[in-house]
């Protein structure tokens, strides 16, 4: 059964955040809120967690996982960023954007797009996510909590607990965080390419 944590959306309780971070370090797969919708998350090298995310969402090997980072310094460890890309990302973060970029050697091979060797990265604008990332000290490997054959992500923590009770280890709930996933921008080819229109405004990339 999944543990259920009810946290304040703006001032999350540090003890609770630390408990969740400890679970992640020990190999847990969690469902947690972001600035666009709920996500599934685990440690970067957690093979079991990655497998469970693929199973829950019915994902194939071409799926781009996302590294949810606390800040730009952390993001820069995992993807190659030139000056032009730096300016683009800096202007849009923190926010509801996922950027696809060439990965560094810090990213495990099983997370990369098999042909492009790219990975998604983002810096969320959400107090609970940021508190969790600060305590964890590393990115969360994540994927939008969108179940197969459903059009919209689940928005209620209690519903996630009810439906995924035996496949996730914890649910972090801070209230409704919306149904719109991030806007996905592919920057791996130099020019911005809008892959998915979502919660982030695309005007700056068009």
UniProtKB/TrEMBL annotation:
- Name the domain of life: Bacteria
The record places domain YrdC-like at: 14-200
Cross-referenced InterPro entries:
DHBP_synth_RibB-like_a/b_dom, Sua5-like_dom, SUA5_domain
UniProt cross-references to SUPFAM superfamilies, sorted A to Z: YrdC/RibB
What would be an example GO MF term here? Answer: double-stranded RNA binding
Which NCBIfam families does the record match to this protein? L-threonylcarbamoyladenylate synthase
Protein name per the record: Threonylcarbamoyl-AMP synthase
Tell me the organism.
Answer: Streptomyces violaceusniger
The uppermost taxa in this organism's lineage are:
Bacteria, Bacillati, Actinomycetota, Actinomycetes, Kitasatosporales
């Amino acid at each position: 059964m999944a543990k259920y944590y009810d946290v304040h959306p703006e001032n999350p309780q540090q003890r609770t955040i630390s408990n969740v971070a400890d679970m992640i370090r020990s190999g847990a797969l969690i469902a947690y809120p972001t600035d666009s919708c709920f996500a599934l998350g685990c440690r970067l090298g957690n093979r079991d967690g990655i497998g469970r995310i693929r199973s829950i969402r019915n994902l194939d090997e071409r799926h781009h996982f996302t590294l949810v980072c606390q800040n730009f310094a952390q993001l820069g460890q995992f993807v190659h960023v030139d000056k032009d890309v730096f300016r683009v990302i800096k202007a849009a973060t923190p926010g509801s954007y996922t950027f696809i970029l060439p990965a560094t050697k810090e990213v495990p091979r099983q997370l990369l797009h098999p042909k492009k060797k790219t990975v998604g990265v983002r810096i969320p604008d959400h107090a609970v996510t940021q508190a969790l990332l600060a305590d964890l000290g590393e990115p969360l490997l994540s994927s939008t909590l969108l179940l197969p054959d459903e059009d919209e992500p689940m928005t209620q923590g209690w519903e996630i607990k009810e439906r995924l009770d035996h496949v996730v280890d914890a649910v972090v709930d801070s209230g409704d965080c919306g149904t719109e996933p991030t806007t996905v921008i592919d920057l791996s080819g130099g020019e911005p390419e809008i892959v998915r229109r979502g919660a982030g405004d695309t005007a700056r990339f068009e």
